[in-house]
Amino acid sequence: MERRFTLELYKEYDKVNFYTIHFDGESDTEFDKFLSTFSSSKYLPDLQKILAVLKNLTIHGVLERYFRRESRMNDGVGAIPIETSELRLYCLRLCDSIIVLGSGGVKPRTQRTYNEDPLLNDCVKVLATLDSLIKMKITQGKISMNGKSITGDLKFYIKQND
Amino acid sequence: MQNIPSEIQREVDLSFEIVDRIYEILEEKKMTQREFARLMGKNETEICKWMRGTHNFTLQTIARIESALNEKILRVESNKKEELKTICVGMSVSNLEISTLGCNKMRLSPNWFYPKEQAYTHYGSN
């Protein structure tokens, strides 16, 4: 079974563009779902801190050193970690000007890695797969990245058991 | 995006300013993060954690970093006129907020960038 989605521009800033993932048939994007889930929970202050970090990225750029690498070392999947919190937002950094905001969740401190949790594992897996697909489409000339914009065929699918 | 409480935004802003300043110093000294870690007696993983922009630095840690690198990272504002010549964090002049970018530029609210010297001329500071 396939899960189809579109890479959608979420918000544009002077130096940086935020993109996010929008699965077919769903009303909300992955990032909006993350915001909705945690904005009325005990994790609201942590969510606000993540948003404050995102705001700084719009000013300083999406620099690699601001992220903690997740997934494999050769993809751009990272987490915005708040040291005092268990809440994680997973993102895909494409370059200093483009970031894809995924989803995330709570990773308890007792849990060593994200892949011990099916929800977090899925968040990372989707972004890691998207990274591969984007690179493939760039090679094929179906997608191009110019400055802070990514254009072309921004529809993707992943297989349910990938 | 949602409204962020000012104290949370300020906390994160400060953290970013501090790590950007540290990074700037390391670049000027051509020092790698590994060398910096060794200098601080820390492992590289911990330094990477510091440099992400969300670390809650203690004054003690900042003081140790300043000593190890022999460079200033933070200055405290003063109302004395002569202090206007110093780059400060959060200094107010004529209701405009000046924040340091940790380099030779000063950012003036709302979104103006001036080299330090021009900013002084523009606002008539001594």
What does this structure look like?
- The complex is a heterodimer of chains A (162) and B (126).
- Chain A has one domain.
- Helix content of chain A is 30%, strand content 35%.
- Chain A has helices at 30-39, 44-60, 118-139; strands at 2-12, 17-23, 68-69, 77-81, 87-95, 98-106, 143-146, 149-152, 155-159.
- In chain A, a hairpin with a 2-residue loop joins strand 5 and strand 6 (98-106).
- Chain B has a four-stranded antiparallel β-sheet, covered by helices on one side.
- The radius of gyration of chain B is 16 Å and the shape is globular.
- The interface between A and B is medium-sized, with 23 and 21 residues.
At a glance:
The complex is a heterodimer of chains A (162) and B (126). Chain A is α+β, with helices and mostly antiparallel strands and 162 residues long.
Q: Indicate the structural class of chain A.
A: alpha+beta
Strand order across the largest sheet of chain A: 3-4-5-6-2-1-9
- Biggest sheet overview of chain A: 7 strands, mixed
Element pattern of chain B in H and E:
HHHHEEEEH
Which CATH class of the largest domain in chain B? Answer: Mainly Alpha
Please give the alpha-carbon distance between the first and last residues of chain A: 10 Å
Distance between the termini of chain B: 41 Å
The helix-and-strand class of chain B reads alpha+beta
- Helicity range of the residues of chain A? 25-40%
The third-level CATH topology of the largest domain in chain B is: 434 Repressor (Amino-terminal Domain)
Mean pLDDT of chain B: 74
Number of strands of chain A: 9
Question: Beta-strand level of the residues of chain A, as a percent range?
Answer: 25-35%
Biggest sheet descriptor of chain B: 4 strands, antiparallel
Trace the largest sheet of chain B across and list its strands: 1-2-3-4
Give me the number of helical elements of chain B: 5
CATH architecture heading of the largest domain in chain B = Orthogonal Bundle
Shape of chain B: globular
What do the pLDDT scores of chain A average to?
A: 88
How many domains in all of chain A?
Answer: 1
Unreliable spans of chain A: none
